[in-house]
Amino acid sequence: MKPLSWRWLSVAVVAAAGCTGLAWWLMIQSPVRFGAVAVTEDDGMGRLVYGYLVTLVGVVLGAAYRNLQIRREAGEHEVGGVGQFLRTVFLSLDFWMGVCGSPLVYALLMRATEGGSMAGLTAIAIENGFFCTIVIRGLAPKVGARRQP
């Protein structure tokens, strides 16, 4: 194996120092923001209504998914009629539990994403709506649990 010359070693050190200096300078110039808080937007009434409607879309998707899971575990391989499937989803207890719990989940969501972007709000609202019943189940006391004095 051929040993590295001093020239190549010095070029590598200067290049590494230059890249580090450039990255540090870019971070000082403006704070790095990404994800749900990439761009701050106003918290107007339109944003509140939009976010809640998207949360309800997540509730519907979550109830539909859990309904499909139950059907698959029961051995079904097809949905059959789409209208009958949607009727089953909208009349399910899982859907209505999600609808009842969605205001609390949405309030927690709005508090957690204060000052975030619409794209971040959309993604997080759908996710929280999808898992709304699980979130509420974790917050609510267990049915039949003994109360501590």
Describe this structure in words.
The protein has helices at residues 6-29, 45-73, 82-90, 93-112, 118-130, 132-139. The chain is mainly alpha-helical. It is built from six helices and no strands. The N and C termini lie far apart (76 Å). The chain is 69% helix and 0% strand. The protein has two domains: 1-32; 35-139, no CATH class.
Key attributes of the depicted protein:
single chain, 149 residues, mainly alpha, 6 helices, elongated
Helical region count? Answer: 6
Strand fraction equals under 5%
Mean pLDDT: 76
Structural class: mainly alpha
Radius of gyration: 25 Å
Count of discrete structural domains: 2
Total number of β-strand segments? 0
Order of helices and strands: HHHHHH
The low-confidence runs, each spanning 5 or more residues with pLDDT under 50, are none
Distance from first to last alpha carbon: 76 Å
- What proportion of the residues is helical, as a percent range? 55-70%
Largest sheet: none
Q: What is the global morphology?
A: elongated
